[in-house]
Amino acid sequence: MAELNTGGDGGKGGKVRSKKMNPGVDLTAMVDLAFLLITFFMLTTTLSKPQSMPLAMPDKDPEKKIEDNTKIPEERLMTILIGSNNRVLWYMGKFDTPTIPPTETVFGKNGIRKDLLKNVKLGKTLAAKDGKPDQGLVVNIKASDKASYKNLVDMLDEMAITDPQLYAIGDITPGEIDLLKKTGLY
Amino acid sequence: MAKVKVSKKSTRIDMTAMCDVAFLLLSFFIMTATAKQPEPKVVDTPASTVLDKLPEEGVATITIGDKSVFFTIPGKELRRETLKRISGIYKVPFTEQEYETFSNMEGFGVPLNQLKGLLKLGVNERNAEGLQKGIPYDSVNNQLRDWIKEAREANKTLLNERIQSGELEPTAFKDLDIAIKGDAKEEYPTVKRVIDILQDQKKNRFFLVTGLRNENF
């Protein structure tokens, strides 16, 4: 295949004839090698940098006094409980006297997102009535021990999509676990 | 009958253009490549719609999967400094050779008493699946807390040194960023435990490593 002729004609006197060389070099091997290397680099590269979700947790200091705690208006507080098998229970207001009773739903755009969007609107109207138009819904996410990490990220993702005024991850109370058990979500 | 003359055509094609393209692609991949680091634990992260990228450098990663926790410290110097501090706390001496190996090792997940054994292994053996069982993080033997704490302290010291020598601007000082890379199927209590460890040392802001998806889920 290779056609690179290099030799002269011995040079035994006579006319020096410049030999017509074939300028074409066989590139097959070179291309083979190049593609081999391309394959190697494609397979070992991580092209996409991983995405990330910034998360800020509330300060947890046992010695800190709780005097500077700002009261959250209960009618604007939505609590989301995450049970087992990707099922969710939410209510508005206090646990004992909810303004909207516990409602069961699922993850995704046809489940919790519809409720969240409705409640975000409701929160805005309630806050405007209070004379605080820059405030809105406050969401407390409480995952039970049966929830998975994916559930938590999904819920935080819903927060990023529906954009309530404030959201936080809280610890679930025994009463709420009982409620989940009663409704068969635990 | 007249002979049908089959014209003898050359079977060779000009490879020049193909060669050019191949090498162009090759240069592109070499320049953009960051080699995939071998990980002791491969996890499948959950997806989210948030478009923020993880900072490229200086992020310590806590990998959680199958109830075991792994820790990745960024940077050679930081790894060495962290191990020095850990060695001081737990009174486990390490040789210079072991420091060198550790500073070249990305992530790890073994209790401290198995670390020496791990450092003796080669890179491929070390990252064999199931070999590393995770760093203990229960309340009795909370080594994960110490690793995180010492890594943050070491980061602080190293940055201060570099600022004092004039290598960095004082504004470059920041606390070590921490990212949690959890498996999607991981149970919530394990993740909660790790978040609690971070909160206990007043690390309230961190990243969750996620994949990408659109809003229609």
UniProtKB/TrEMBL annotation, chain A:
Transmembrane region(s): 27-47
Protein name: Biopolymer transporter ExbD
An individual GO BP term: protein transport
Chief location: membrane
Superkingdom of source: Bacteria
Localization (cell): Cell membrane
Alphabetized UniProt keyword annotations: Cell membrane, Membrane, Protein transport, Transmembrane, Transmembrane helix, Transport
Pfam families: ExbD
Family that this chain belongs to: Belongs to the ExbD/TolR family.
InterPro entries noted in UniProt: ExbD (IPR003400)
GO-annotated cellular components: plasma membrane
GO MF annotations, alphabetized: transmembrane transporter activity
Organism lineage: Bacteria, Pseudomonadati, Bacteroidota, Flavobacteriia, Flavobacteriales
Membrane topology: Single-pass membrane protein; Single-pass type II membrane protein
Cited PANTHER family: BIOPOLYMER TRANSPORT PROTEIN EXBD-RELATED, EXBD MEMBRANE COMPONENT OF PMF-DRIVEN MACROMOLECULE IMPORT SYSTEM
TrEMBL record, chain B:
Transmembrane residue ranges: none
Primary location recorded for the protein, binned into one broad class: membrane
UniProt keyword annotations, A-Z: Cell membrane, Membrane, Protein transport, Transmembrane, Transmembrane helix, Transport
A biological process from GO: protein transport
Signal peptide (from-to): none
Listed GO CC annotations: plasma membrane
Source taxon at top rank: Bacteria
Protein name: Biopolymer transporter ExbD
Keyword check for Transferase: no
Family (UniProt): Belongs to the ExbD/TolR family.
Pfam families in alphabetical order: ExbD
GO MF terms held by the record: transmembrane transporter activity
Its membrane topology: Single-pass membrane protein; Single-pass type II membrane protein
